[in-house]
DNA sequence: GATGAATGAGCTTTCATTCAT
DNA sequence: CATGAATGAAAGCTCATTCAT
């Protein structure tokens, strides 16, 4: 009746991933997780010392990657020169290798970290993520069109970017060309942003 | 120390609006609501027969408006002719009167209906909303560029639209030019969408 | 089926007093207390917000009295002149009015505070109590017989005093002449202490 | 990494002695004991069949010595003739050899037996110990002063004796002249008792 | 209309003990 | 001998809801 430690640990992590994903940390039930993993609450505590420890086991790596991202903001700016490229196709080709390095970060557990961590010590990550992009958007907007009158759009577009990333992660299972979709989405954000800023360089022929 | 019935009912609704907004239906606490409204749990049940009934009282109107929206899809398509307008400024002017009629619907209680209703019978509204727009996006994409290869973008862009509307409602309190922001956001979505579809009509001069 | 609030509160306090007395704070069971008081755990939390709050409700007054005692050390020293009185009977008469003021403090709840508070924020009271008396004993011993070689006796006699007070409180229910017994006990401590210190003034005729 | 059976058994006993001493039988944790002994809970049950069996292994010898003591009450009475000796110094000298035989009994495990056995079958030992001395005190009191009116003092003084012995054992580690302190303490009890009984023989010159 | 006492099921966590390996 | 996975009961506490007053 005994399972090798790693097996059950993995089962617990898998069950927890689903449960946290469906209900969020606070509404998730340890009872439901252990039931799904085929064990008992008592035994659960041989594997994880608390509910939060289980969540942490799921998101720790993602959180480290998250902090690396936050600390290397210049990387996000690297495709900056693209803003002067008129050709959408060229954009795609140049964005591809850049996002290749980012894609492995955008997985389900990253989603838990950003979108399902209320009640844990990771609760504020989404806000940090939003603000991180908001600063960049505000900066870009000021440089491209200092007269653009709708300041709150910086915040809103940043949230759009974050929401979009999370949405894509959510549907990643059912998407074939996951990588391409991320590229398309970034392109969508870039073009839309430039559009409302009235920049006409893009799509000129 | 009895209060006129309507007064307390209103206080309960206001307190509930805040609580549901902050925590969502399931994590919201009736105790916290009645405390904020200055009454007791016992008395609460003279006004609403359950936790869900209180939520329903808040969102019922919004839900009716939501269904009207869902049933009059052609309204959403009305700005369709804009897609051929090359001028962003013209877009803004034409979108304005159209969204004037929609804005009163996009209030806090609509937000509760779409984004805080998990655990109630309204739980699926967001999904309906998403799908509603997804169909339109897919349709537009097919018409504008039948060869565009990234089908899942329809779903994603629809979610972007819904997320954006909800984000704007969330920050409506702190935004001056609420209406203009909605227009800017729609514009952003439209331009971005056309951009990835490679349509070059817009912003041509 | 409903009891007036104060009634059940009193029942809970009584039941808790017994349970804490028998098992100490940590081993005491809320379930056992509420069962003895004839209610449910859910209802218990309408009366006290935690296990510790219940304990605190029992000992708060005693703790205040305890601090008054600790802050008025000179009162403890007041019978100091007695040490030169040779007559045990005179001691009794002089101690009586002095301890009259102290006796109401030495009740069952004081016992809980000193001897059953491990696991609560009151955990250290017994040690404070011991040290308080130890200092006095050490002081007295130095003055009465600077050459007495067994220094640790100060600590031990202080503990004897504290233990004795607690023992008397424990058996107070079954004792007729509670007040007199306290006097006899203090006398016992005083005479014993002087005896080992080799002071011969007492009981001389 | 197997250890010779006796080694680990000893380690478990040592760890248990500390744990039971610190927390008492019921609050002691097997997990903590096995961890301190460097083994696992499973292995623990190769050495002791239950929590109580471990406690029993610790106190069995002490309990036998305890019963010997209880059965040879006349030994306790042997210093009886001292009660007529007027000289404290003489008391000390005569008590010394007598208690030499008793001291080895008063060790840490004896302390566990008397003061940390609640929840085990040894739970009542302290009460037996108290009663044992109480009978002697009552007896002495009746013989020395048949008119002494405070009967409960017998019980209280017996408890004082027991408490004192336990207190001294507790602090034995930090005391130099352990044996002398026991003598001083007995003397303290004897003189204090005689004092309240109004016997004036002692300390007369 | 209003109060708050009462209920009972739910939650996460701890524990001594058992047992397959 | 040793491991540590597994069990199940118990702990303190929270919650929406009911109901006597």
Description:
The structure is a homotetramer of 205-residue chains. With 205 residues, chain A is mainly α. Helix content of chain A is 68%, strand content 0%. Chain A has helices at residues 5-27, 30-37, 41-44, 51-71, 73-77, 88-100, 108-115, 125-144, 153-170, 178-196. Chain A starts with a helix and ends in a 9-residue tail after the last helix. Mean pLDDT of chain A is 87; it is low at 199-205. Chains in contact: A-B, C-D. The A-B interface holds A 26-27, 88, 149-150, 152-153, 155-157, 159-160, 163-164, 167-168, 171, 174-177, 180-181, 184-185, 187-196, 198, 200, 202-205 and B 26-27, 88, 149-150, 152-153, 155-157, 159-160, 163-164, 167-168, 171, 174-175, 177, 180-181, 184-185, 187-196, 198, 200, 202-205. The structure holds a DNA duplex (21 and 21 nucleotides).
Give the arrangement of secondary structure elements.
The structure is a homotetramer of 205-residue chains.
Chain A: H1 5-27, H2 30-37, H3 41-44, H4 51-71, H5 73-77, H6 88-100, H7 108-115, H8 125-144, H9 153-170, H10 178-196
Chain A binds a DNA duplex (21 and 21 nucleotides) through residues 1-5, 8, 29-31, 39-47, 49-51.
